[in-house]
């Protein structure tokens, strides 16, 4: 658990909010993945009851749920990758600044492992 806290310690406040937004987008994407099954259930029910007046609504539900699922998943993935690369870039910049302050002899004589 301390590793997770250390990782979240590397992320600034703005990117933490973005990361939470990415998680919310991905969770909503999964929930949208359930809606087509409900639409199919509605279509089957329409055919079994021989009432087709709601058939178009169920087809629209299925199509919109599939489109929304992919849009939310793509958005969440894009945001999370952006946060990851920004965090990695900031971590590297901090590391370079730290190494730049070290004396040259320390860098040459100290093993990298």
Quick overview:
It is built from five helices and no strands.
Please give a structural write-up.
There is one protein chain. This protein has 113 residues and is an all-alpha fold. It contains 5 helices and no strands. α3 runs antiparallel to α4. The chain is rod-shaped and about 85 Å long. It starts with a helix and ends with a helix.
List the helices and strands and how they pair.
Blueprint: H1 2-10, H2 13-32, H3 35-48, H4 55-101, H5 104-109
Helix pairs in contact: 2-4, 3-4
- Report the average pLDDT across residues: 88
Largest sheet: none
Unreliable segments of 5+ consecutive residues = none
CA gyration radius, whole angstroms: 25 Å
Whole-Å distance between the termini?
25 Å
Task: Describe this protein with a few key phrases.
113 residues, rod-shaped, mainly alpha
């Amino acid at each position: 658990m301390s590793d997770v806290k250390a990782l979240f310690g590397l992320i600034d406040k703005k990117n933490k909010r973005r990361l939470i937004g990415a998680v919310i987008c991905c969770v909503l994407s999964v929930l949208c993945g359930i809606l087509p099954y409900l639409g199919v259930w509605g279509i089957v029910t329409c055919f079994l009851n021989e009432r087709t007046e709601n058939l178009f609504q169920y087809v629209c539900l299925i199509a919109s749920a599939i489109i929304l699922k992919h849009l939310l998943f793509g958005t969440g993935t894009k945001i999370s990758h952006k946060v990851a690369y920004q965090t990695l870039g900031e971590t590297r910049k901090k590391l370079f600044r730290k190494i730049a302050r070290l004396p040259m002899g320390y860098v040459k004589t100290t093993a990298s492992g």
